[in-house]
Each structure stands twice: as C-alpha cells, then as structure tokens.
Design goal:
Oligomer: homotetramer
Organism (chains A, B, C, D): Vannielia litorea
Protein name (chains A, B, C, D): L-rhamnose isomerase / sugar isomerase
Radius of gyration of chain A: 22 Å
Domain Xylose isomerase-like TIM barrel (chains A, B, C, D): 96-287
Strand order of the largest sheet of chain A: 1-3-4-5-7-9-10-11
CATH topology of chain A: TIM Barrel
CATH class of chain A: Alpha Beta
Number of strands of chain A: 12
InterPro entries (chains A, B, C, D): L-rhamnose_isomerase, L_rhamnose_iso, Xyl_isomerase-like_sf, Xyl_isomerase-like_TIM-brl
GO molecular function (chains A, B, C, D): isomerase activity; metal ion binding
Distance between the termini of chain A: 38 Å
C-alpha cells in the first residue's frame, strides 16, 4: 500500500483550492435549496466493489498487451485493490473469480484483514475450460445437452458458494457464455430448459442469506443466440428460481440503442434488480471505463436508483467490471469508482418534487431541464472532499503516480510478454 | 371482386407447368422422406389476417404519395381485402382499426357476408387525436398523468371491444405510442404503473372468450422511452393482467441485431405468445413487405412456431401489418400472404428428429444444415398448388394485373392528392 | 418581439448571482491557466442558424399535436425566430425551406430588416409533392428514372438559388428522400449516376460565392436504400461536383454506434466539411433537442471543430434542425442554441498542448481526462454572461415564460387541430 | 489428401439423383429463358481463396476450444486447404498471414506444387506483438505516434511483400487494429495522417503488378475509434495512395443496419473495389460461416457483382475470412465456398433486362420480385454438377466425413489443450 505521508503531502497541496471550490459549489447548491454536506455524506457512504480480475491488463481476441507489474495471483491482486480503496475510500470490497482466484480460504481472509478489504459476490467460470477439467464447455456448460457436463458446471458453482461462505461473501454471480453460433445449432427452448434445471440445483445450494445474481448479455462469445440474452429472459429466470434470485445489469450487455435505464426501472418494479456491473461501451461489450463514452447514460441509471432509494427490499449490488487494455488498471479503477460516485452525486441533486410537478403538468422541457441541470453540475469538489475526509486522496491519480507504486510492483513482479488472444 | 373466369383462364395457362414442378419437387422431397401432399395440406390450412388500413397507401412523416383507387372507407377496404383472399385463399379475415373503420355493425357484418370475409382482432387508436375527441393524447393516452385522459382512452378501448363483439371479433390489440422524447419528461416507473392500471380496466371489460394482445415497440413515435418498449415489459404486462393477456410480436419493433426468434421461443415457454404482426425491416419500424429484407429471419420465426405446434394452449394469431408506400397495396398484401406461407412450408420441411440428434451430439454444422437446406428449398409449387386447389390463382399477381381491378376501382374512387406527413 | 423591459427586469433579478458564479468559475479556470473572458468572447461570437420550419410543432408519421399559436406562415415564423435571437443573441440567421416559405423577396427582406435577422442557407424540397406540382416524386426526384421528373426537381433547386440570391443567402442545402424500399426496386449504381447528373446541373447554376451543401442520411423516408446514404457517398458527390460542394452532417443521420466525430475529422481533412444540422437522437433521425440524449457526443464534435479552428478554408455552417413534437418550439430552440454554445465553450477549455503530450506519450488515461474534465466544467455562467452583455436574457427560458409571448400569439393565430401523420 | 476412390464411390451413389434434379431445374430455368449449362460453366469458373488461419479452430477473448487434429503450422494448414479444394474445386488459392505462416519460400512453393494450390494475397500482422519483436504495438502500429514503431510496422509489411514475391502472390492486404479506446486518447486527424504516411511507404515498395488492399472495420480491437473505420475512410486512403490501392470489404466490419451492397456499388463506381473477405455476422465481427445468418444479404452483394461484370478494370478478389469456433474448420470452409458460389449462381439467374424495365417504370414490386425469385431458386444441382464434373464431390461434407481425414490427422497431430482468450 501507499505511504500515508505521500497522501498527506499530496492533499496538503490541494486542500486550499478544494476548500474554496467546495464553498463556492455549496453556495450555488444552497440557492437551489440543497445542502452540500448532506450530499457529501451520502456520497461518502456509497461504495462500489472492484473485480479481482480488473487489476490485470485485459485483452481482445486479437491480442493482449500486458503492462509492467502485472499481478501474479490473487494476493498481488488484493494488494492492488487495497491501493484503489486506500486512495478513493470508495471500494472496500473485492469480487473473486473461481478458479482464477482459488486459494486457501484462511489465506484469503488473512490477506483481506491485512489490506482492510472484504469479499463481494463470488463469480463462477464455465465459459472456459480450466486446466485439469475433465469435460469441455465447448458446446455449453449449464445448458449443455450432456447431463454430465451440466453436473460438472453445477458442481463448480456450488464450490464457488462454498468458497464464498468461507471468506464471508454473500452472493453468487453466474454468467455463462452458453448459446450458439448458428441457427439450428441448439434448440432455443430446450437449451433454456436445461439451463433452468441446472440453475435450480445451484439455487438449492444457496445459503438463506445469500443472493443469486444472473447476468444477461446479447452476444459474445456466442454469436447467434445466447441463452440469457436479455433482461426479459433474465427476469423469467429469477421468477422461476425463487426470491433469492435477482437480475444483474451489465451496462455493456444490451443491443444497440436500448434504453438501459428503463430496464433498471422495470426490474425495480418487478422486485428483481440484483445490481450492476458498471463499465461503458460504444459498440458491444467493450468493457471500457465507466462513464468514458456516455456519462449522461450513467447518470440516468443513477437517476432511477435515487428515485427508488428507500423502497422496501431495494438493495442492488454495485460492482465495476471493465477490461483495461491500454491503461494502468489501478488508475482506471480509481477513476471509475469516482465516476460512479459522480453520477450518484449528480442524481442526488435532482429536485424530485419539481420534477414530478413538471412531469404531471406535461411540461416536457422543464422536466428534462431538471435532469440536465443536475447532470451538468460539476460535483468534483464533493467527491474530493468525501475522499479527503475519509483519509483518501483529493486527487487519487496524481497521488498514485507520485507514490511510485507501479514502478515498485514492476520491480517485484516478473514481466509478462505479449500474447495473441483467442484467434490463434 | 374479380371475375372467376379470369382466374380460370390465368390458371389454365399455368397448370401444366405447375403440375410438372409439383411432381419434380414431390420426388425430391420423397427422397428426404417427406410427403409433398401432407405439407400442401398444412399450408392450405394456414391463414393470415390482413389489416384494413393496409389496403390504403401508407406514408412517412415526410410525405404520402397516394395511388389510384385509394379506398374511401371501410367498405372499399373490405372490397380490396376480398380480392386478396379471392386470389390467395390465405387471408379470410380482416382486422379493423377504430375509429378509422367505424360503421354500423350490421353493415359491417353484411358486407363481410357478401365478400366472404370475417373479422379478426380489433385495434384501438389512442396514438392520434381523432376529430371530435375532447382531450388530447399529446402527452400520452393510457399512461397519461391525467386521470381524465386515461379514462377517455380506456373508454375508447372498451368501445372497440363492444364493436368487436357485434361483428364477431374475439380479440383486442392495444398498441400505444405513449412514452417520452426526453430523459425526465416522464417518470419511467409511475408512467408504467398508470399504464397497467388503465389496462386492468380494459382487461376487466374483456369477454371471457376474448384475448387481449399488447404490442411492444422500441421507439417511434416516442424517441427516448416507450412505455411498452420490449418483450420483457410486455411479458410483465401479461403476467399482471391475467390469463387472457398475451404478447404480440411485430417483427419490426425491436432494437437492431436483436434475435427475434429467441423472443418467440421465450414467450412460447412463458405461455404468453399472443401472435404476430408480420412485416420486414432493415432499420426501424420500416413496415416493409414480409420477407422482403431478411427472408431467412422470417423462416427462423416459423421454425420456432412449427417446433411448438401442438403444445397445449399454443395458438398464436397471425396478421400482416405493413405500410405500402410505393407499391399497389393489394399486390404487396397478396405476395406477403404468400411469403408467410412460404416460410411456414419451409419450416415444415425441417427433419426435426435429425435436427435434435445433431443438436444433442454437438454437431453444430449438421444442425445448421438441417435448417438451411429446408430454407433453400423452393416451395413455390406447393403454395401455388394449394391456392389453385382452393379456387385461388396459381399466380395471384399476374392474375390481379390481368383482371384490371385497380383501373376499375380507380375509375370509381376519386383521386387523392399527395400530402405532407407529420412534419408540417 | 419581447418588451426589453421584461428582459431587463428578469436579468436584474439574476445579475448578482451570475456575477458571483462567473467570478468563482473564472478563478477556477485561472488555476488551469485559462482566461474566462477570452472564452466568453469566443462564445459570444459564435452563432447558429435556426430553421424556419423549426418554430412550428413537428410530428411523426402517426400524428401531429399542434400547440397554441402555431405560426401561419413565414412571417409569423420570422417573428418567432426573432424572439429566439432576442433572448439568446445566438441565432441571428434563419434558414428557409421552399416552397413552404415562399413569399415575395422584398417582403422577406423587409421583415428580416424589422426583426434584425438575416437569411442562412436555402433548403429545397423534392421529398414531397407540393400543391400544383405537375409530376410526382413518389419514385424519386433528382435520381428519378424519368428525365422530366429530374428536370422538374433541378428547376426547383435553381429556383431556390434564385430566391436565395434575392434575399441574401449564400448557400443551398440539398436533401432528398430518394432511395428505395426493396432490394431491386432501383439500380443502386444507375440511380446514383442520375443523381450526380442532376446535381451537376444545379451546381452549374450556383453563383461563384455560394456553397452547395449535400446531406447524407442512412434511412427514412426510404427504408432499404437511400441514394446519399452516408458520408462516403456524400464525399464522392462533393469530389465529383467541384470546390463549391461540401458535405453537411446531420447528427441524427447515421447508423447506430457510428462515431460521428471521426466523420467530422475525416471531412475536415478532405476539405469538404460543409457544416452541421444539430439535433440529438437515440434511435434514428429522432430530431430531438441538441444535447438532450448524449451531450458528451456533442462535445466531442465540437472538440474536433476547435481542433481545426483557424485552418485555411475551414468555415463550417452551423444550423439547428429539430422536430419539436412535445415542447414549445421557441423554448426548445433557445435551449438548443445555448447547448451548442455550451459544447463549444467546453471544447475551448481543453488544454490542447497537454492533450497532445499525453497522446504522444501513449498516456490514454490522462489524455481522456483532458477531455472529460473540460466536459464536466459547468460553463453556464460563461453562456449567461455572454447573453447578458449582448442584451439577451441571463435565463432565456424564464424570461420567455415571463413575457407571455406564447399566449399573445396564441390569441392572434388561429388554433390548429390535431391530425394524423403519413399513415392515413 | 483424400483417396480419389472415396470421392468416386460417394459420387456414384448420388449421380442419378443429381442428374434428375439437374434436369428438372434445367427445364424450369429454360422456361425463364435461361441455360443451366451456361450458368454451370460460370459457376465452375468461379473461385474463392481460403485463409491459412481459417483451418485452425478460432476463439474469442473468453476462450478457445481446439478440436482434434489442429494444424501445427503452415504445412499442415496447406494440407487441410488442399482437401477443401479437392472436394469443392472452388478454392485453388490460399492466403498467408505473416509471421504466423513464415517458412522458407522454396518450401512453401514446393508444398503448393504438391497440393495443387497457389498463393493469394499476403496478410501482414501488426495487431499483435510477435515473439522477438523489439517494439510494442500496444498503442498502435502504422499510426503510432512513435516514428520507430511505425518504421517497424512498415518494414514488416515490406517483408510480407518480399515473401509474397517469392511465392507468387500478387497482392498485400493490410488490416490494422489501430484506433483508441477513449475519446481523446488519440488525435483522430493526426493519427490518420500518420497512417497515410506509413502506408505511402508500403505502397512505394509495391511491385507494379501488385495490388494493395486496405480493410476498414468499425470496431474491435479498438472500442472507441478505429483509424480505418469505414469505407469512406478506406476510399480516402485508396485515393491518396494511388491506382494500385483498393478497398477490401469484409462483410462483418460495418455498423448495424448498414446496407453493404450499396457500399459495394459505390466502390465499384469509384473504381476502388479491391475485393471481399466473406463471412457472416449478426452482431459485430462475428466471423461466422458465409451465408449462415443472412443469405439474402450475401445474394444482394453478388447481385451488384454480376451487375458490374465485364466493366473495364473490374476484378475484385474473393476470399473467405471466418473464425471456426464450434465446427470442424474444413467443413465450414467447404460449405462456405459452396455458399459463395450459390449466391453467385442465384445472382446469375436475375433477368436483368426485365429488372431494368421494372425499375425504369417505377414498378417496385415486380423489380423486387425479379431478385426474390432468383434468390429462392434452389441452385444446389448446378453447384453439385460443377463440382462433380471438375472431379470434386457431389456432397463434399458427406464425402469428407466418409474419408476419415479428421481422425487421420488427429492421430498425427498432437492434441492442443483449451486455453483462455485475451481476458486473462
């Protein structure tokens, strides 16, 4: 982790400007009847999980270009995650991926204790063939025509639950790549039935206080059909499995032009919004940094979440899920954690009473302005103050670079050479 | 209607070639273990409804370019529909749109009797302000914030049911344009709640032997959000309303790249597939002739339907819903009725036992070939023979042109001048 | 126009807050090495044209819902445009559409003089059949197979040039709906050749100091192919016609997910960027208020324009082109004019020297941050100060509402009843 | 290669049925005024290249699932390619990818001689870091800000030309993944300038009788911008480089809903259509088997090619470019070669004189029918007869399976274990 004196020194150089900016913004918000301190308090209490795999450099099917200091395993990954939380104070939990992060539970718990982190949802992996695995998922996993292969995939998910119980997790996230590349390759109905049967076995193994998150995705790695292709299918799954089953929304898993915030609103109404995998995308499941492509869309999602705050049973899980192909993953995750908080803060600024008045009066323009004015408010001083007061960095990026952390781990961790992706 | 001797003369000129083609195809299918006569019988029993509004020239928001002989009202429209059925023997029912087609029930029934037609689902219209209407739907109809406006829209739908009862219809189709053009303009959740409440009132007025079809659409006329935007929302509606409520799938109402046949499969599994509005599209709700843009996609939809044939309660309604902007609407509807039958015939050719074998064996290539070989079989001789044996035309298009029907009605019906669309 | 004392009174109530906000923002920008006054000066000098047709309520093919005080003709429209400019000081020119706005040139010039407006690009209309027109554009206009129809369309465009010369315009914008609804309906190559020949005749009639803008669009009103479907075809047209021909970019005329700012960059490099029709869209050519759906995308377009500022010959035309279906068109146009200026102001904040340094160093994250920080700066105080100093309104919307202008014109102009769009 | 007696035996079992089908189809075509033999002759003369990398199992960024008998290198790949050509008689040439296929030229030429194959276009690879490469392409290759990296990429391309000269190739295909993942990461204009400069150096090294093909792609592996993102940019490149430069169209490289056949028509008119990478896709660059998703679209592309046949200088290159993730690559390539020929045969059936008549008469429906009737003709007997007469297999798939080739090479070539894609 980073030497606290580095953080203090970096903060000291920025404290006066921050105080001035915070005060100016506070005055402006006060004119709108808003308390900047109240918003800051809500922002400070908002956390988002980071995925263990996010701290490694990602790639495409064409290539992967590793950076210096790639983590060698889960313990290195937890070190990197700890830095992210240390500077942002926004990411106290880490989500593990099995078997990538398999390790003795006691060691994981001990490491978490040392780094001040806890464990978020567990993630199973049946979209790859893992070393030592007896049967292949080439033609599907939980929906495979073969009962043996389905059983193997179910057993793996149950193992993930068991690992999770041992380390304090409370949720299992299931994403499968099952589907087909050609019309006819699978029977769309029978494949879904097999998936549901397998999921029912996993659900049966779920502890009472756990939640099961299923994730839909329109395409990739299957290119004609995907068994859980959209939120409609995802909702059917949750309804079939039971009350502990909820739908996870990954922002990059939808068809072009789809209105994602409407899906969020619908799942909230159905009582089945499990949570989010945050990232951004322009074309497909691009897995870019959250808010990098369409920050207004991210704000609109949070507008729905703030609208639903306080409803009974409303408690979605929040996680970043990005592929960092050309940036330092720690930097991207720190900024994305900030950008999620930014969208939340902006959504908190919306004057909901006025908004409803305009909506009910058919004043489309003023209603739209309510959201647009909230969105274009620069809430960075609120975010920075919340970090600073919690012991984090006013400017996490500058502080991280000043710390020399990347160079330090690059010296300890062996260099990884570039390699092709899936195409060869 | 067209003089039967015209049909006979036209058929006579084509009968020998048809017999030869039918025999050659029969021999080829026999080699695959298929009986051409059995397939022909199923095709002959397959019908698709035509929409009354489809026989008039359609337009865009930019312009409408009427053709000669535009129908002046519902009775002219029924004449045109009768010609379509006379030549194709595939379209015995007509779907009415209220208030466009409002007329004394007795007159409608009498006209239907004369033309040999019956009435399919009723369609309400709350996406326009009709002459004499007291309150405007500018800001929504069934989901409008105003209780008075919602009540007006509900009453209109109930009136549609009443008209339908008087003329022998058994279903109501509800499509609304409600939504919003700007983020914030409506509360996505409250708007949906209002829609559901209004629909519950309509549902309560539904006779026991009727079905209620709700139709989803991603966009247009609303350009940011639409209250029934996709099949997921549509399914929630059906689940909320009750067992008589089903989801209607219009092939042009989905986001780009969406796999429509999967939606069909899912709705079948949910027991909520109400039926179809057939057309084709490349970009949005283009409302082009069925099969004109992607005939393989149409086949894949029918592949799901044939797969589900015979399941308890499986009885989807089939209707064409197209906008004929540059063709003679009668010609387009005749060909589209044929093309729907074509897709059905091709789907009947699939060897389902082999298909399942390949699917279960993970033989993606052979499974895909099962569908592709069925699709590329030229089943025109089957369609033509089914028409001919039922008293229709071997070649409906040539026969229609030979009949002079369009010139005849153009002489009777006054010319309509071109006009702008919605933009001015 | 609006009584200046209304503007003064409204501004007086907001002046102190504006001064404080402007000062606070100025201090913050000064820290980044930026002069707020210099940016304000550039913003104040930035203007965007309004389309005459934009001040009427728009519609879709399904319906049009007029509002109170719809303009009865071009002179009412110019009154409305004058109000927009009076309050925003951003829209000194109006773009006319022929034949919609046809009127004696002297009267147009006189009215412009009275209202303080001038005339921007002329727009021809061959996508509708106008009353009295002898030949129909149902099957195309400038690319129609019929030489007579093409000649009629060419003559109409030349008439537009002549009207434009008489009223001080310096550009002709040509957008056609020509294309096809079905594969095979037109020969894609021969249709394009015909279009090019017709355009060459129009080009030949263009005065030396005029520019010709051609506009591409992926679809609508044609739903299979459009003769000028994308910027590649548009570029070929400009190259074929000559140096006065340039490509116009309408933000809503592209395929889903297309990177519009790249197109802008490419057309700049080719020396053929004619200008913009600003609006916003989520699905198709939605013609929503500029920046309403994706404000970051608008900013990225302006980022390219600021990057290119000062290059020899770089002088794109800027116009709003929106359809106001659910808002008061004057209000939408005022806000959109502001939002275009907002994007320009934000783009001016980008530290281009730093940006290039990060780009050349492969520091993707810092480069991206350069743009994101500029975008999230709330530049409203700059826009308001620029308006206020030019005699406009600090808050155009509140001032407009306070003025009672809409009620006043609604009293003078007869109510228009709702009507169907193109579908019936 | 496969024992000729296997082919003979397989053909013998199918010859009678083929003769009957060919005769029946011939009679039907004769009625339309078409000679089946003339069409067969054109089909037999039509060839499509296969890519060396296509015979290995492909993958995604998530995983790759190898099959039995994966080729160990270029010589195994050429063996597999030889089988494809032996059975289909449609694929006499192979396209190499450097450095994947690097080998002594004399050995390559010798192997080609033994297998009866020749070499098609050369493909360079600067989208991966190859073992031993000194500088990384992480931030771009031909458009990298670093002159050294660009020089390395240029040198690699020139090496590809040299290898190609030694083995009889006559074209270089350049596809780069260069672009950016975030707005601001690169300067869109300067990056394109750098690309053009680098390409000019490659162009200068091109022998006089060679062609240079550049390939556009909307996204992947770059997820915000791609330097050659569409055909418009591709055309600018060809215009800038010179007459030997042409644009390559990969069917899967476009934005959703884009009309690809229009792009083909435009590039033909510009004299810059270099050729094709055939495959099919539903969502992105899915690289599925040609014609598997939208066979009508493939037909429409060939309709443009047949329309342009015989124009001076019209000579596009045809190649398959697919990723075979779930099928035996040899089987997919054989069927795709057939499907390309199928689309060509169908396009040859179009009655172009009638088509033009309908087009010029504004008879949209009959024009569309001309294409649709050609498309739905089952031309399999023509394809099979062409293969059979050339010594290939009437049914390549059944013959291949009967031959036991895959089992045989699986016994010789070591098994490859599954592995993750680019994400870990």
């Amino acid at each position: 982790m980073i030497d606290p004196t580095t953080i203090e020194a970096q903060n000291a150089a920025r404290a006066a400007d921050l105080a001035a900016d915070y005060e100016a913004l506070g005055a402006r918000l006060a004119r709108r009847g808003l308390s900047i301190d109240a918003i800051k308090a809500k922002v400070a209490a908002y956390h988002v999980a980071v995925p263990s795999w996010g701290v490694g450099t990602g790639g495409t099917r064409f290539a992967r270009f590793p950076g210096p200091g790639e983590p060698r395993g889960i313990f290195d990954k937890l070190d990197d995650c700890a830095v992210i939380h240390q500077l942002t104070r926004a990411t106290p939990t880490v989500s593990l991926h099995i078997p990538w992060d398999k390790a003795p539970a006691a060691d994981l718990v001990a490491k978490a204790g040392q780094t001040g982190l806890a464990f978020d949802a567990m993630n199973s992996n049946t979209f790859q063939d893992s070393p030592g695995q007896s049967l292949s998922y080439k033609h599907g996993s939980l929906s495979n025509p073969s009962a043996e292969i389905r059983a193997q995939a179910v057993a793996h998910n149950i193992e993930c639950i068991e690992i999770g119980r041992a380390i304090g997790s409370r949720a299992l996230t299931v994403w499968v790549g099952d589907g087909s590349n050609f019309p006819g390759q699978t029977d769309l109905s029978r494949q879904f039935d097999r998936y549901l049967c397998a999921m029912a076995e996993i659900y049966a193994a779920l502890p009472d206080d756990w939640r099961l998150f299923t994730e839909h995705k329109i395409f990739e790695p299957a290119f004609y059909s995907t068994v859980v292709q959209d939120w409609g299918t995802n909702l059917m799954i949750a309804q079939e499995l039971g009350p502990k089953a909820h739908c996870l929304v990954d922002l990059g898993h939808h068809a072009p032009t789809v209105n994602i915030e409407m899906i969020v609103a619908r799942l909230i109404r159905a009582g089945r919004l499990g949570g989010f995998h945050f990232n951004d995308s322009k074309y497909g499941d691009d897995d870019l940094d959250t808010g990098a492509i369409d920050p207004f869309r991210l704000f609109l999602v949070f507008n729905e979440l703030v609208e639903a705050e306080g409803r009974p049973g409303f408690d979605p899980a929040h996680m970043l899920d990005q592929s960092h192909n050309v940036t330092d993953p720690i930097e991207s995750l720190m900024l994305s954690a900030s950008d999620v908080r930014r969208a939340y803060a902006q959504a908190l600024l919306v004057d909901r009473e006025s908004l409803r008045g305009h909506q009910d009066a058919g004043d489309a323009l003023m209603a739209a302005q309510c959201l647009r004015e909230a969105f274009r408010t620069d809430v960075e001083p609120i975010l920075a103050m919340a970090r600073s007061e919690a012991g984090g960095a006013i400017d996490p990026l500058a502080t991280y670079r000043a710390s020399g952390y990347r160079a330090q781990v690059a010296a300890e961790r062996p260099a990884v050479s570039g390699a092709g992706g899936g195409i060869v």
